[in-house]
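Minimal example, chain plus flavin-adenine dinucleotide.
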Amino acid sequence: MKRKKFLQTSSVLLAGGMLAPYMACKSEPETVPVPLKNWAGNYTYQAKNLRSPSSVQDVQTMVKNLGRQKALGSRHCFNDIADSPENQISTVLLNQILDLNEEQKTLTVGAGIRYGDFAMELDKKGYALHNLASLPHISVAGACATGTHGSGMQLGNLATPVRSIELVTPQGDILNLDRQHPDFPAVVVGLGAFGIITKVTLDIEDTYQVRQDVFQELPLTALAEHFDAIMGSGYSVSLFTNWLDQKVSQVWVKRRMDRPIDDLGHDFYGAIAATRNLHPIVEMTAENCTEQMGVPGPWYLRLPHFKMGFMPSGGEELQSEYYVPRVHAVDAILALEKMKDQIYPELLISEIRTIAADENWMSPCYQQDSVTIHFTWKQHDKEVRALLPMIEAELAPYGVRPHWGKLFSVNPEDLHKRYPRYPDFVALAKKYDPEGKYRNPYLDLNIYG
Ligand SMILES: Cc1cc2nc3c(=O)[nH]c(=O)nc-3n(C[C@H](O)[C@H](O)[C@H](O)COP(=O)(O)OP(=O)(O)OC[C@H]3O[C@@H](n4cnc5c(N)ncnc54)[C@H](O)[C@@H]3O)c2cc1C
């Protein structure tokens, strides 16, 4: 069997300044002073202790001995989903590349590793992932737990290439679940409700190059008329808009170089080819962004919008994101465009993406090809929270599902009705975690409530 094992040193992990709060902490029993904030700084975790185990055995001991607890990834959620009234168990030290299986075409990694920490290594070995989110700074298990996604009409979210996981159950036992296991579609987008995932095995494919072309000022009428053609014009396409002037400010088209490529020309459905690299928030420096202008590069340096080692997005911000069935994409976008006078004053930028349907029970794309309408907000908590119910009311006719890791205010009863496997998910979570070790105010409100 052609099989390679290689370990990754932790040096790459030290490159990211955002890990600084953890660096004093090696492993149990040392604990890090709290309070600790999420990446955006808009939420202060209430957990009294933060532990950072460095081995699966450490995780098992901790899980068994501690009461209320929650896994903490790279802290990129905007709400309290990763919080616990008592203990957070950071996966930051479970950060190794564990196994590249070239025969099976899989990669096994520690759950806490960030995509940007292994993507280059994977590419060097000749392999790639199918897609990435807008940023590579997030942990694999944390991203999968909330159904984090990139864009692509044919591309599922980041949990869809997960072939198997190793879970430390609330009792401290190790459980391996693969795609054939009946519980797998619940646990993989599990919202942290089932225990601590310690290893993730991902499907990989042969490496590929991508070129990224950006077009500016797409007329909204053209988008409404040609939505599928525009979103299908590349392997992964993102639209950025501030909702003003009946225009989409930027169209980012990411195309694989190993597939047929048409010349998109300078006039793309009325949008004009950009003449320099751009940041989605046009006032910000494009230095933080992946290379554009049609320059081919490896998948991991083109599929995300933001470069590892640079600040993604706007920094001081809030985020919300809403999924609607793709068949309603244009109606949903036009409905929100009517709210531009309320939205614009609180907005940094909006992004529109597509994601293919999947079978994971609590995935917002469960059995539904989806379009997502995302908002990067100014960090004005009160004003943004006042807007969310209005946006959600506009999108309610389309059965809107919010991103689990961002801000939303959808009534839990309505939320549950939009997930056909919701009752099964709750029953299974209670079976795995009868003592409620993984329950927190977020799950109590949105899932158990
Ligand atoms: C700048 C920025 C850009 C973003 N871009 C995108 C984007 O393009 N697409 C998108 O969909 N989202 C995006 N997000 C949202 C974000 O990536 C997700 O919400 C993701 O879940 C964050 O992962 P994390 O590792 O930081 O998880 P955390 O916030 O640390 O945790 C999230 C959840 O995962 C659980 N969890 C974490 N690790 C484990 C584990 N080992 N076992 C069990 N449960 C675990 C936690 O308990 C919690 O419930 C963005 C966020 C930011 C800040």
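Residues 39-40, 70-77, 81-82, 91, 111, 133-135, 138-139, 141-143, 145-146, 148-149, 191-192, 196-197, 312-313, 403, 405 surround flavin-adenine dinucleotide (CB under 6 Å). Residues 381-395 form the longest helix (15 residues).
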